[in-house]
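Writing this down once: the sequence line spells out the residues, with the fold written below as integer tokens. This is how one looks:
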Amino acid sequence: MTYLGDFQAGETVNAYFNTNDADGAAVTITSSAARVYKNNTTSYESATVTVDVDSQTGFHSVNIDTSTASSFYAADSDFAIVVSGTVDSQSVRAVVGRFSIQKRTSTPKMVTQDLGVLEQSAATTIAIGPFIDCMTGVPLTSLTPGDITCKLINGTSSTTLTLTSSGGSNDLTHIANGIFALELTAANTNHMGNSVLVLQDDDVFVPYTGSYVTMRTQSYQSLITDDDTLDVDLTLVGGSAITSSSGVLAVNSTQISGSSAAADSLEAAMDTSNNLIAANVERINDSATSASNLSDYTDGTSNQPVDVTKISGDATAADRLEAMMDACELFDVDNTAFTPTTTAFETTATEATTDHYKDRIVLFVTGALAGQQKACTAYALSGGRGKFTVDALTEAPGNGDRFILV
């Protein structure tokens, strides 16, 4: 006896069986009939037997359309298929299969959903579901909005929403796979805190409950949609009231590092005309001489002239670095009379001697080619502008791009 499986209500069940004579040879069955018994009782429905399927002697089937007797083929039930007839001149009766309907794959008792955060007093459309067929356990793709009882619970207050398929305030339309779009008006979301949606049509789908939290517009747009900034109104610091003028906090520091004298000294040094602190540095690294030397080096425009006479204590190294850097000339690309290419471009150089810069390295320090260097293969003065020919660059330099000759 074969268990055929657990089926959804309304599906067709097919059971196959064979008949043989006493010697084991396939023979047909005559006067055949089939009954389907329910839950180990004598209650049954008749079924159709197809003899010698596909003209194959001794191979038969029983076909059961469970939609023809929905109250008999109900969910949470077991069934046995019994076939009777005559085989090889003998009267036979046998159970050829068992099946069940929605007994081993359960349908949920309720669908619950967290709908997240909604904006207060804003009309919106939310996706709710899935809505599950209470008989078959499959998602529904079609509902009759007018048959659905819909309650909106804000806090502890309940409101009934009238659902419509189109043209109403609370339209309910299918999206996909049992998920529906529900319109909510600004009045529906005019509540702060928790809200619950309850939809019921007991003969069609299992009850649905969806919950969400409503947030003020500015907070919602700042934290959820990221198209606003959150205003902060600061009234207390350390439990004490603060004052402000035009949104700028008024700060009154009476101590610095616990010292009121330090705060008084800072106040005395403050230049109130331009809000700068007048600093009179008398010592650097506890040395008055260092402070005096720093003062002597200052040129009066807040720039510090630097004269490096040694590198790592070596004056010769400093001299050599100076000589090397003096020889590394800087030029800019000039496209006045020649459009730069990847291998040639005119510049601000004015050296008249042909190939004067040949074999030097052209290192770009600005523009798209910054950091790229190529060998100079030829140089000539053309129309007052030095023209460089180099190994191919990745792209032509732009007008004004600067390079150094290494």
